[in-house]
Design a protein that fits this description.
four-stranded mixed sheet, about 20% helix, five-stranded mixed sheet
């Protein structure tokens, strides 16, 4: 009996509780921030090319602009850091549009070069699942991927 009481005291003092539920952490995507040379130039690019809407910059810091990606998600453009911007195609912002052909026409009319993943200029990539995609760069060299919406099958 003494051994059982000692064991129960040991278990209780160790912080081990039988039946205690593990606390789960839940996270959601909020925003994507880019370090840019000129937040005004970058904001105009994203507004004009991708039709993103500017939203209130709640930091109220000059040199930072916020844009809506829809559904409560945001793109923050930050020009207050003067470090060199280095990136490659594997680091990219991926978006989806139901107006893929219209986007391609817009890129062409604005003389914005786009490519498939390997880098063939003005070529649209078609994935095995039928999704069309292109890649292009913003004024700071960041890569943007835009995908079409899957066609509905009846």
């Amino acid at each position: 009996m003494k051994k059982l009481i000692a064991l129960l005291i040991l278990i209780q003092s160790s912080g081990f509780v039988i039946g205690q539920e593990k606390s789960e952490i839940s996270v959601n995507f909020n925003h994507f921030a880019l370090s840019v040379k000129d937040s005004d130039q970058s904001a105009e690019f994203y507004k004009n090319v991708l039709n993103l809407n500017e939203i209130t910059n709640r930091t109220i810091i000059e040199g930072i602009r916020w844009l809506s990606l829809g559904e409560g998600k945001e793109l923050h453009l930050i020009s207050i850091l003067k470090d060199e911007i280095k990136t490659n195609k594997a680091v990219h912002l991926a978006l989806t549009t139901s107006d893929f052909d219209l986007l391609i026409d817009k890129l062409k009319s604005m003389n914005i070069e786009y490519s498939d993943w390997p880098g063939t200029i003005n070529k649209i990539n078609v994935r095995a699942d039928g999704i069309k995609q292109v890649f292009f760069q913003d004024p700071n060299g960041y890569w943007i991927e835009v995908n079409s919406v899957a066609e509905q099958k009846n």
